[in-house]
Amino acid sequence: MPSAVPNSTPTPATNAGLQRALAWIQAGPKRLLIGGEWVEAKSGKTFETINPATEQLLTSVAEADSADIDAAVRAARRAFEAPSWAGVSPQARSRLLFKIADLVDQHAEELAALESLDNGSPLSSSTARVGQAADIFRYYGGWPSKVHGTTNPTDASTFLYMVREPMGVCALINAWNVPLVMAVMKIAPALACGNTMLMKPAEQTPLTTLRLGELIQDAGVPPGVVNIVPGFGPTAGAAMAAHPDIDKIAFTGSTGVGKYILQASTGNLKKVTLELGGKSPNIIFPDADIDKAVEAAVNAFCRNSGQICSAGTRLFVQESLYDEITERVVRIASGYKVGSPFDPDTKLGPLISDKQMDRVLSYVDTGAADGATLRCGGGRVGDVGYFVQPTVFSGVSNGMRIAQEEIFGPVLSVLPFKDEEDAIFQGNDTQYGLAAAVWTRDVSRAHKVARALKTGRVWINTYAEVDPSMSMGGYKQSGIGREMGAESIEAYTQTKSILMRL
Ligand code: ADP
Ligand code: MG
Prior knowledge:
With 502 residues, the chain is of the alpha/beta class. It has two domains: 12-276 and 479-498, Aldehyde Dehydrogenase, Chain A, domain 1 (3-Layer(aba) Sandwich), CATH 3.40.605; 281-467, 3-Layer(aba) Sandwich (Aldehyde Dehydrogenase, Chain A, domain 2). The protein is built from 17 helices and 24 strands. The strands form seven sheets. A seven-stranded mixed beta sheet has the order 14-17-18-13-12-19-20, with helices on both faces. A hairpin with a 4-residue loop joins strand 3 (46-51) and strand 4 (56-62). Helix 2 packs parallel to helix 9 and helix 4 runs antiparallel to helix 6. The longest helix has 19 residues, at 123-141. The chain binds adenosine-5'-diphosphate (ADP) and magnesium ion. Magnesium ion is lined by residues 49-50, 118-119, 204-205.
């Protein structure tokens, strides 16, 4: 029986961040940031962003299309060539990034509340992620003075050296699941390396990226260096992917759209980074700390209501413990509270949209139809807001659609394995390769299995822990290239080798 979700904003009077976020929202419709000015779309069009917990309108936002993308590219190109950016010393770029980090910290409560209003993540997660965002700005703030080139050994008649230069104008396109951190994962390294950029947040979640744009301006980043152009994929996004004067594109989203972007970018051979889908294996061996592994396994698929590309959606359990661990996972997952992002007890907020909720619920039908056993959840919670119960299937085989396709909701498949070899084989038996985890007390096994898994990230005896220096990205159809750490510095620079005859 669906019960009503205690919804919307239960503690408004006591949450100062929420008050500030609401005041910012109510200050008026949001605009595009182009060339340092907040402007309407040339078409005059706007779109609405809603609160997925209440289905209510938050505010309207100017809707960029190809004409606005053209204007933003011109602004970014001018800024890239201008001495006010090209001539900035590495130390000054560091100071800008540190300044932005400080501003993010100073507005942490407001940004966290704004994120929770716009995308439905529990406030505790949004708060942690704002902290991460500031950390990422600081991490990349340390880089500008360390983007070294090389001097290469030659005979005495030549001088050969290599310099590392920015790519130029970068198009940054994001998904809606972790909007602020994903924006920062792209903007911070792009700035550190001296690029200029246009960022398109997802149409479902433009608000924290727009607020970040204000803070970036307050920090003193020159006009046109960071442009923010909310809009829809087939119009604004497609115009970015195909634009002849954009040098690089970095995209986070679905594998299908990623392939489209790769094709669209061939017109001028943009340098491309793609962070796409996943179906990550989480492997528990019998010698693991089972209590910790079970807790983490539930978090791994419920975090952000499963709307995380590296969610641990395939739980592999050694046969001898399969029934016991499945039961424990089901028990913990059933106890997870689904509800308002602003309730401190909430573990799962809403999904982002009715479309996403319908998609997730249709996978529940698919799982049952393919013969898996629904052990808990499987339904909507309440009838306002896009809340879905934590859902666990047992009796899943790895070939089933629920084990192969990215669902992007709180749906777990529990699968048995025989031995190490079988766990590795099944773990790798997917088109994706974003992340994986292995739980064992056997040190050799931990490293052997970690090396054998074909994924961009592997966790041992933990899940989803991150560090700004830890790169992420995909083997196989989970993407092209890597983000974070030193690898983002490579992704936002290109090298030039210079040879002189003496
Ligand atoms: P989802 O379907 O889960 O929303 P998408 O991959 O469609 O994920 O969206 C991720 C981002 O890609 C969003 O910012 C969206 O606007 C953008 N996008 C969608 N379609 C296109 C496209 N054809 N070209 C460029 N960007 C697109
Ligand atoms: Mg929204």
